[in-house]
Amino acid sequence: MPALWHKHARVSVQWRRRFRLFLNLLGVAVFALLGAAGFSQAMDILPALSGSSVDAFKVVWVAATAGIALYAVAASVVLVRIRRNDALSILQLRQDRADAMARIDRLESLLETEDSLLLVWDGEAKHPGVAGHLPENLELPGGLSQLVEFETWLDMKSAEALRAFLEHLRGHGEVFRLTLTTTEGIYLEASGHTAGGLAVLRLRDLTGDRQLSARLAEQNKELREQISSLHSLLDALPGPAWQRDNHGQLVWVNSAYVDAVEAESTRTVVDEQIELLEAKGRNKLNMMRQTDGVYHSPMPVVAAGERRVFELTDVNSEHGNAGLAQDISELERVQGQLRRTLESHTRTLDQLQTPVAVFGADHHLQFYNAAYRSLWDIDQSFLETKPEEGELLDALRAARKLPEQADYRGWKAKHLECYQALDAQAFWWHLPDGRTLRVIASPHPQGGVTYFYENVTEQLDLESRFNALTRVQRETLDHLTEAVAVFGSNGRMRLSNPAFAEIWGLSQELLESDPHINELLDSCKELLGKSERWQELARGVTGLSDNRTSITGRMERVDGSVIDYVTVPLPDGGTLLTFVNVTDTVNVERALQATNDALQEADQLKNAFIQHVSYELRSPLTTIIGFAQLLGDAKFGDLSPKQAEYTDYILSSSSALLHIINDILDLATVDAGIMELEISEVDVAQTVSEAVEGLKDRLVESDITLRTHMPDNIGSLKADERRLRQVLFNLLSNAISYSDKGGLVDISCQRDENQIRFRIKDHGAGIPQEMLDQVFSRFVGRGAGGNRKGVGLGLSIVKSFVELHGGRVDISSLEGQGTTVDCTFPLEPRIHSLEAAE
User: Fold this and answer.
1) Fewer CB in a 10 Å sphere around the end CB: N or C, the chain?
2) CB of 496 closer than 8 Å to CB of 482
3) Among candidates 135, 177, 178, which has minimal Cα distance to 155?
4) pTM for the whole thing?
5) Bridge pairing between strands 744-751 and 705-709
6) What Gene Ontology molecular function terms does this protein carry (predicted)?
7) Position 6 pLDDT exceeds 50
8) Is the pLDDT of residue 4 over 50?
9) C-beta of residue 837 within 8 angstroms of C-beta of residue 804
10) How far is residue 164 from each of residues 150, 155, 171, 181, 195, measured CA to CA in Å?
11) What φ, ψ does residue 379 adopt, rounded to 5°?
């Protein structure tokens, strides 16, 4: 503050000096004017004096000297008076300065006794003067430059307000008083006024009751502002809002409340205590409050004459309660529809074979269908916890169900970027178990992602196999000897192989132009001549009949070629044509047909000849056997030993020949198709015994041991007893024939559920493997070491009779170990046709 007074003193002295300098300059100017006037007068009198004896220049010089002397005298007088006045002024100023300093000291003492700080601005000065002080506990900035940076030690709101008031004070002289808050929460009183062209800001610490009063005033102001803002906000809400005192009386309602109760104004509602809720609703509200005094639940309310559903929120406190109602009628309706839609979608998605999973904006699982659970084979209890997707991916990776990744963290982070994506994305997952999934991530506009998992393993496999099959078919078609062509429903060729162009002599240019079948018909006219076959094929390709059928035929071309053709209708409306050049085949077939006719005719002649000769030989052979027996009979006389020996030879040879003739006749009967079986109930054990009994002489003669393995429960079967015995007789006879002297033959029977199997086994030389396929042929027989035994009809007859019963014959043999023959007869014979038995 003293500095301000010193400044004003310096200003006064400067003004005095300037005034004194001004007076001096003014005196010089006056005397200069006077001298100039004298000089002018002298110049005027010079002409008058020119004629006299007086020197004119001397006169001028005298006048100028007199003027200068007069100026000097006048200036001296003025200077003396100015100095005397200056001395008096200096004495007065010193006295005033002493008084001012004393007054300043008193003022400073007064300022020091009070906690206040003065900031004084002189004119447009940027930095103010400072006087006074504030308590040290305020911790204000030390420097003046930092002190005027109000934002550093005042809160933002106070700093902005103080700057605005200071601008008005310094610009317009508007005084102000306001309360400021420091960043430490301490209140200061700021007052601004002007004094002698100075702008003065006074900061004073509010202590004690004044601090408390300021704090309460500030809080009261904030509360009023908050309440006003809150009431404005509630008044703008579309739903009713109200406030009650601690006696339950309405003290404030918003405009929506007034409209809901159809009142005139807010004052009317408060004065008349018009209630929005009925008494029953208010009682329910008071009874169902939570322990913290809050009620929040939907409630039906009649508002503006309509029954609607409101979401009520009512908060109770010791000073009263306040409530808010939001109309959720439309929301309830939409939520109901949404709930039903979601349930329908859930049921639909749960029935889909495509796995679906929905994750919310928080990355947690919100929904999954049965196919999703089945795809990953995850415990349902884990899915019910709604895990976060990252946790779910980690669990799948631990179970080795995710694609193998070298950088799993990077892959996982990139996968989770789907939540920030704008469009749907697709990924291909190749799982360790060989499956391939196409994963589609569709982000939600409200956040979250829906995943669709499409198992394309079979599709890719089918595509791969289809492509491979297509290539194979293409290669196959190209290398087929048959000519193949495929025509579309429009009659134009879609596909053909090189054999088609070759067989019909078509150019590659024509085939590449997708010709119509009629164009091909025109190109083949020279080869077809007057044949109508191509017209038939054209109608089959271009016909519009719903029931298209395959056409098969043969055509003979002009060049002598014979072509077989087949048309196959395709499911897509097209037609497949195949052509085969069967010229050589037809020629061979015709030759074979002629040869076959000749062979059949020769075979018929052979059969007729054998049958006729057999019958013709049988009668004289019977006579020979009869007379040989008579010769051997002692009733007709004795024979010499030699004659008896010859007679035995005749009987044995005749019997063997008769047996061969009978076999030939049986085979001829079979070949003629007139063999008839006499089916009856046959005792298996007895039939086997009878067959063995007929071979006892041969067994004794060959020193062969025959072992019979017959179960006690072998029972019976339906068959031709004579033919069955003949089969067993032939098999046993064959086994004896091919057994070594002193050998062993086994016959056994085994009964199954629906058949009986006879097994005859010898331990002879066996049959070579190259002969096994021929043993059932006629007139084929080989003995041990390749020697022939018999005519080779026995096994052929066995095979024919067994197959006539519906059975089968199997033979196995190893050289040096013997032969085994199995004959299987069904319990109920399925008599085959005689042609099938051939």
Assistant:
1) C
2) no
3) 178
4) 0.32
5) parallel
6) kinase activity
7) no
8) no
9) yes
10) 12, 14, 11, 16, 20
11) -60, 130
CB 260 within 8 A of CB 240: yes
Where would I find the beta strands (DSSP E) of 114-173? Answer: 116-122, 129-133
Q: Over 405-444, what HEC string results? A: CCCHHHHHHHHHHHHHCCCCEEEEEECCCCCEEEEEEEEC
Give the torsion sign (CA, 833, 834, 837, 838). Answer: negative
Query: In whole angstroms, how far apart are CA 549 and each of 533, 569, 615?
Result: 16, 7, 56
The two structure tokens encoding residue 340? 């039903």
Cα separation, 485 vs 118, in Å, equals 112
Mean pLDDT of 529-540: 74
**679-683, long-range: CB < 8 A, 24+ apart:** 679/718, 679/719, 679/720, 679/829, 679/831, 680/718, 680/719, 680/720, 680/721, 681/716, 681/717, 681/718, 682/716, 682/717, 682/718, 682/719, 682/721, 682/724, 683/716
At 628, list the tokens.
Answer: 């040989």
Going 548 to 553 to 558 to 560, the CA torsion angle's sign is positive
DSSP 388: B
Q: How many CB atoms lie within 10 A of CB 101?
A: 14
What are the respective helix, strand and coil percentages of the chain, to the nearest 5?
50, 20, 25
- Beta-sheet strands, E only, within 648-732: 679-683, 705-709, 716-720
pLDDT tens for 563-573 read: 888 888 888 77
Task: Encode 756-772 in three state secondary structure.
Answer: EEEEEEECCCCCCHHHH
**C-alpha to C-alpha distance for 728 and 739, rounded to whole angstroms:** 16
Share of the chain above pLDDT 70, in %: 77
Q: Coil, strand, or helix at residue 361? A: coil
Average pLDDT of the chain? 77
Chain-centroid distance, C-alpha 22: 102
> 824: which 2 tokens?
């299987």
DSSP 8-state code for residue 833: P
DSSP E strands in 446-503: the ranges are 449-455, 483-487, 493-496
The residue assigned the tokens 């085959």 is 832
* Rounded Cα gap, residues 693 and 703, in angstroms: 15
Length of the chain, please?
838
- What pLDDT, on a 0 to 100 scale, did the predictor assign at position 748? 92
575 burial (CB, 10 Å; 0-12 / 13-18 / 19+) is buried
Which helix or strand (DSSP H or E) is residue 439 part of?
strand 436-443
